[in-house]
Amino acid sequence: MSSVIHIHPLDVYERMKGGQRLQIIDVREPGEVAAGKIPGAKNIPLGQIPMRMSEIDPSQETVMICRSGSRSAMACEFLMAAGFTRVKNMLGGMNAWTWEVE
Questions:
Q1: Active-site residue among 25, 38, 49, 66?
Q2: According to the UniProt entry, where is the signal peptide (predicted)?
Q3: What is the C-alpha to C-alpha distance for residues 69 and 60, in angstroms, rounded to an integer?
Q4: Is the dihedral of CA 18, 69, 66, 84 positive or negative?
């Protein structure tokens, strides 16, 4: 059973709109990100997370995103196993963001 905490795209949007500082990590491949991304999101493809973990601040609330929410959930599990406690997976990924926010 996964212990990943999920967050709804509208919650992410409202927090950003309200000025809350969120660290958003997009684990999609660069070609996918070129099609559209959340403003301020940092792209670290899923396969690079282990080597680039130092680029993620463990003290900040972090929202992991991908296309549909699957890869970002895997990234959350990896980071949680490495000791990160403030990571959340955005439900539905960019598919949901595009449908519900944009």
A1: 66
A2: none
A3: 20
A4: positive
> Amino acid identity of 102?
E
Token reading at 43: 């792209």
Three-class secondary structure of residue 18 per DSSP: coil
Distance separating alpha carbons of residues 88 and 102, to the nearest angstrom: 21
Domain that holds residue 95: 5-100
pLDDT tens profile 30-89: 999 999 999 999 999 999 999 999 999 999 999 999 999 999 999 999 999 999 999 999
> For the domain that residue 40 is a member of, what is the CATH number?
3.40.250.10
Half-sphere exposure of 40 (CA within 13 A, CB side): 12
* Cα separation, 29 vs 63, whole angstroms: 17
Q: From residue 80, how far is each of 23, 35, 45 by CA, in Å?
A: 15, 29, 17
Q: What is the CB neighbour count within 10 angstroms for residue 54?
A: 7
